[in-house]
Structure formats: structure tokens, C-alpha cells
Amino acid sequence: MKKKRKMRSNRVFFSLVFIGLGFIIAYSYQLANEENEGIQMTSNQWERDQMLRDQLVEVEEKNRGLQHELFEKQEMVQDIEKGFAKEEQILYNLAEDTEKYRMYLGKVKVKGQGVEVILEDSEYNPDEDSANNYIVHEHHVFQVINELFISGASAISINGQRLTHNSYIVCNGPVIEVDGFQHPAPFVISAIGDAEVMASALNLTGGVKDLLVNDNVQFSMEKKPEIVMDPLLGS
């Protein structure tokens, strides 16, 4: 009877031991799995972070390459803009020169400030041998015109007739001919340009005005805020 009770006690003991051992094993297994999962998650996260870092480095390298390419394009654009600026300046200069040539040729209407010079014959003195000493001759007109051109006149007319680069003036008795057209005295010479400069040049001591007065030519001059000259007609 005692032997049977002892055997039952042993069975209960071993049962409890096995149950506890099984619980320990199960807990250890679960803990190991959780640790493995943690390690696996940590490893996956590191791989993902590394991949993102590699992608970031790749993007930064592409950005640097694009920046270098952008700088090169900007330099090319700047060179092109400089070329356009030079071409624009050249075209502007050509247009300006063309306008000047048209103006000198009398092909366009011009206006601007300037001076108006009037040359008149002096009163005839019967005691003098010749009346030619009291009239305006072509060389008197030439003296005024040459001084005006030297002083920067851009356009000149005589009695309203524009002068061109190949105009001619000849004396024909009491009148002068300008390009074949006769003009009697007084001769009104109009010039467009810097009025102050041209007036000062004509009024120089011993200059054109004094020479004309000594030749008995009546000389008068007026500064004009605006002078208008129409273009030449015909060929």
C-alpha cells in the first residue's frame, strides 16, 4: 500500500517537473523567437537605411552634375548675349551712319537748333571805281559755309535750298547759282547743329565775320531754337 502511494507521489512530482520544464522551454523558445525577430528587424532597417543613403548620395551626385551643366549653359548664354550686344551696337552704329549719310545727301527731312546767317550787299558808293566791291560774291558764301561745316553743321541751306555733298555755287552777276538755281541777295544761310559752337566760330576775332565786313558785306546772324529743312526732290 505504501509502495503504491510512493509511486503516485513520484508520478505527481515528475508531472510537475515536466510541466515546469515544458513551460520553461516554451518561454525560452518564444523569447528566442522574439530576439531573432528583433535582430531581423534591425538588420532590415539597416539595409533600408543604407539603401536610402546610397540613393541620396546618387541624387546629390546627379545634382552636382546638373549644376556644372547649368553653369556651362549659363556661360554659353552670357557669351551669346555679349555677341548679341555687340551685333546690336554694330547695327545701331550702321543705322546711325546711314541716317547721317541720308541727311548729308539731303534725302530726309531734318530739324534742330542752329544758326541763320544773312549776307547782304552794301550800299553802292559812286566814288568807288567798281560796284563789285559792294556785292556778295560766291567766295563770301563759301567762307560762311566752310566755317559752318568745320563747326559741326549737319545740314545747310541757302535761301531754303538744301546743299548736298556735290553742290556747286557760282557767281552770275548780281545773283549766285546753287546747283543751277539762281538766288538774288540777300542770301540766307541756315545751318543745323550746335548753335553756340557755330556762332562762336563765326564771331572769332579776325575770323569769317571780320573778313566779310572788311569786304563791305553786311553780315548778321541769329541763333534759332529750331530749323526745318525739307528733303531734296528729284534725282
Describe the structure.
The chain is α+β, with helices and mostly antiparallel strands and 235 residues long. It folds into two domains: 108 residues; 114 residues, Protein of unknown function DUF881 (Alpha-Beta Plaits, 2-Layer Sandwich), CATH 3.30.70.1880. 56% of the residues lie in helices and 20% in strands. It is built from four helices and eight strands, in the order H-E-H-E-E-E-E-E-E-H-H-E.
Secondary-structure map:
Elements: H1 2-105, E1 110-120, H2 138-150, E2 155-158, E3 161-162, E4 169-172, E5 175-178, E6 181-184, E7 187-192, H3 195-202, H4 208-214, E8 218-229
Antiparallel strand pairs: 1-7, 1-8, 2-3, 2-7, 4-5, 5-6
